[in-house]
Design a protein that fits this description.
The complex is a heterodimer of chains A (181) and B (488). By secondary structure, chain A is an alpha+beta fold. Chain A is built from five helices and five strands; from the N terminus they run H-H-E-E-H-E-H-H-E-E. The chains are: A alpha+beta (181), B alpha/beta (488). The complex binds flavin-adenine dinucleotide, NADP nicotinamide-adenine-dinucleotide phosphate (NAP) and FE2/S2 (inorganic) cluster. Flavin-adenine dinucleotide binds next to helix 3, helix 8 and helix 15 of chain B.
Chain lengths: 181, 488
């Protein structure tokens, strides 16, 4: 019978952890489009070198610092290239939030819901109807909630904190199906 | 050495702490890498969103578990392929994530295996430490009114299956020869069906809708679609994105009955934001309909109407009208109830589509099933009174909720399962054979499973013939054709 777990899988888990653990440093970031994938794969097989080629040529001046507070309340600080969406950041930096960005940024799921600082939220361009349509289905929305795939990081946002809601849920089925007989 | 390295080893240790076998080798790493046959084996029944998301979370949360997905059809993805409307390709992006899960080295896909028929749940339980039932809802609620079986009356499940290429619905040939179609139910499935019936062909022909459906719709004489609900405007089950799509559908205009919206504008202020915005959009559409316009095709909601009887044409060959019972509302808000007034109204129509919900069916006499709720009775995904059995998705919760809802409930089930492994509630000490026990059984029974790489062959062929037709894919409509491509 085949061996239960290959060394390869343990090694790749190890690599994933290296990738995750290095996400807090200032990293070089490529802005080629990301390939979607299951979270565990995103963590190690999609862009294994992305986060490990740290520091070298990146000019800190092009970067915007964003602090993510994840579902467990742990803060992760990451340097982001201006113009990327918050969804891009979560994917590229392997922030590993289960189920995040299911529709890959096409405004069809609301799983990329994030909670922003009030001062940042207020300065953003207002939401288009289609974003509100989807956001309204997200779980636990607040006054400063936005869909991460619709928010582009700009220089002026430097230092902002982004909160990942407790659970990524979509409330569509709670909208109106309390049936009668 | 920096803090990240320390972090790495801490994480590795916690990874290795997961209970994998009863053997006690001298170090954790050896135990994980070299204990033959003792890793937990889980199988998932159903290759839809619930199956894939359950597998995804199990693989992520446990470093050794092996997950096999058994799917009845030769092709994966369940309702993402056979339910989600062809003009919603963005929703189907989840397929990329599912594909990565299927290609994970500890996961394998076994299509063309009808659990309950080709292999029993009990046999799966003997081969695996745990079985997760994620087989969705393959039946539908029936109207229970006379005339339901007349030609021209279809369930939304079959109609959707037809335009989406579900093999069992390929010969549906719905009657699209009359001007008015009535859809019963006001959920998102009802709106999908209305949109497909009225969409300009130019939009549809660039989607993965099947060629026979495209041709039938090209010849369709349906010009007017009424979407009928048993309750009022404040209780519609659809969501705003789908309603907005109807409102913006080129070549159509709304046809509402203004009187049905009496008092609704006044109620707006007390509604929660989602319901308020949905209702405002509906009111706007109702207003638009009273202003008239030149669109050739029309759609509209009708409220407080329940089907009573489907009336046949004089030669009794097909449906010619529907008799609707008029209701009044008792109570208010989401929980308001429809109560019949005793009055009825007949609406002439040639096509009637019942979109009042899908329904799960029992899979195997040994698996508990709640016939009233039509779900597998469970607590947090643990099937009640059935150790080692779990469930996720529509068969666990009932046939409502979008993919994201299904995703969360599947993660919950996976968490329950992992927790049971950790507490020992789920005994994983004995070695299990997994697919090595099941595959020979299947072969002996003349069933030739389709692996994920076999599916990729089908996928490639479908995309190739789609490309030739200017579509993202042309689906194969026949199981035999799929199997031929898969095993080529
Ligand atoms: C018409 C329609 C349109 C929808 N559109 C959207 C949308 O646009 N956006 C959105 O977010 N959600 C949409 N949904 C909801 C979404 O499809 C569901 O939330 C989701 O598919 C439920 O997943 P599931 O895995 O429980 O069921 P399913 O998707 O039904 O998967 C069950 C799988 O099990 C297999 N199976 C059944 N019996 C057996 C057996 N005996 N042995 C082996 N395998 C078996 C089936 O073949 C199927 O592949 C739509 C639903 C419908 C009905
Ligand atoms: N684009 C999308 O996101 C999309 C597309 C399709 C489906 N989906 C999701 O898939 C799920 C299933 O959709 P669905 O439309 O099948 O179900 P649904 O949303 O539950 O709607 C069912 C409709 O049928 C009515 N109904 C139920 N029983 C009835 C009866 N006996 N007589 C008359 N009317 C009856 C309901 O009215 P009452 O309210 O009075 O019970 C309701 O209007 C939903 O969660 C939906 O959001 C999503
Ligand atoms: S990723 Fe789906 S809405 Fe943002």
């Amino acid at each position: 019978m085949a061996r239960c777990v290959s060394l390869r899988s343990v090694l790749s888990s190890l690599r994933s952890i290296v990738a995750i653990s290095q996400r807090s440093g200032v990293q070089r970031c490529f802005s080629h489009p990301w390939m979607p994938g299951s979270q565990q794969h995103r963590a190690f097989s999609m862009h294994p070198i992305l986060c490990s080629s740290s520091l070298s040529n990146s000019s800190a001046a092009d970067k915007v610092l964003v602090h993510f507070v994840n579902q467990d309340g742990v803060q992760i600080t990451t340097a982001v290239t201006e113009g990327e969406s918050l969804l891009d950041v979560v994917i590229k930096k392997n922030l590993d939030i289960s189920g995040f960005g299911a529709c890959e940024g096409t405004l069809a799921c609301s799983t990329c819901h994030l909670i922003l600082d009030e001062n940042i939220y207020e300065k953003l361009d207002p939401m288009v109807d289609e974003e509100v349509d989807m956001l309204d289905l997200a779980y636990g929305i607040t006054k400063t909630s936005r869909l991460g795939c619709q928010v582009c990081v700009k220089k002026w946002m430097d230092g902002m904190t982004v909160q990942v809601p407790q659970e990524i849920k979509d409330m569509r089925n709670a909208v109106g199906s309390a049936g009668s007989q | 050495m920096n803090t990240s390295r320390v972090f790495v080893f801490k994480q590795l240790k916690s990874l290795l702490r997961v209970k994998c076998s009863s053997a006690a080798p001298s170090n954790d790493l050896r135990r994980l890498t070299a204990t033959p046959g003792s890793c937990p084996k889980v199988c998932v029944v159903g290759g839809g969103p619930a199956g894939f998301y359950t597998a995804q979370h199990l693989l992520k949360a446990h470093p050794a578990v092996q997950v096999d997905i058994y799917e009845r059809l030769p092709v994966p993805f369940g309702l993402v392929r056979f339910g989600v409307a062809p003009d919603h390709p963005e929703v189907k992006n989840v397929i990329n994530t599912f594909t990565q899960t299927a290609q994970h080295e500890r996961c394998s896909f076994h299509g063309n295996v009808n659990v309950g028929k080709d292999v029993s749940v009990q046999e799966l339980q003997q081969a695996y430490h745990a079985v997760v039932l994620s087989y969705g809802a393959e039946g539908n609620r029936s109207l229970g009114v006379p005339g339901e079986n007349l030609s021209g009356v279809y369930s939304a499940k079959d109609f959707v299956g037809w335009y989406n290429g579900l093999p069992s619905n390929k010969d549906l040939k719905p009657d699209l020869s009359r001007e008015t179609a009535v859809i019963l139910g006001q959920g998102n499935v009802a709106l999908d069906v209305a949109r497909i019936l009225l969409s300009p062909l130019d939009i549809l022909k660039e989607t993965d809708i099947t060629q026979p459906a495209l041709e039938a719709l090209a010849a369709s004489r349906v010009r007017r679609v009424l979407i009928v609900g048993r309750r009022g405007p404040l209780q519609v089950a659809c969501t705003i994105k789908e309603l907005r799509e109807m409102v913006n559908l080129p070549g159509t205009m709304p046809e509402m009955v203004t009187a049905e919206f009496q008092g609704i504008a006044e109620a707006l202020k007390d509604l929660p934001r989602p319901r308020k915005r949905l209702t405002e959009l509906m009111l706007k559409a109702a207003q638009g309909s009273s202003e008239g316009g030149g669109a050739e095709k029309r759609w509209g909601f009708r409220f407080l109407r329940s089907p009573v009887e489907i009336l046949p044409a004089p030669d009794v060959s097909r449906a010619a009208a529907i008799r609707l019972g008029i209701n009044r509302l008792e109570g208010s808000g989401e929980g308001a109830r429809a109560v019949p007034t005793g009055e009825v109204e007949d609406v002439e129509c040639g096509l009637i589509i019942s979109s009042i919900g899908y329904q799960s069916l029992p899979i195997d006499p040994t698996v508990p099933f709640d016939p009233r709720k039509a779900i597998i009775p469970n607590k947090m995904g643990r099937v009640q009174q059935a150790a080692g059995l779990y469930c996720s998705g529509w068969v666990k919760r009932g046939p409502t909720g979008v993919i994201a809802t299904t995703m969360n409930d599947s993660f919950d089930t996976a968490r329950s399962l992992i927790q049971d492994m950790e507490t020992g509630e789920l005994d994983t000490s004995a070695a299990k054979m997994g697919s090595q026990a099941v595959t020979p059984l299947l072969l002996k029974r003349g069933v030739n499973p389709v692996s994920f790489s076999d599916w990729k062959k089908i996928d490639t062929e479908e995309m190739k013939s789609g490309k030739a037709a200017g579509k993202p894919r042309e689906k194969m409509l026949d199981v035999a054709e799929m199997l031929k491509a898969a095993h080529s």
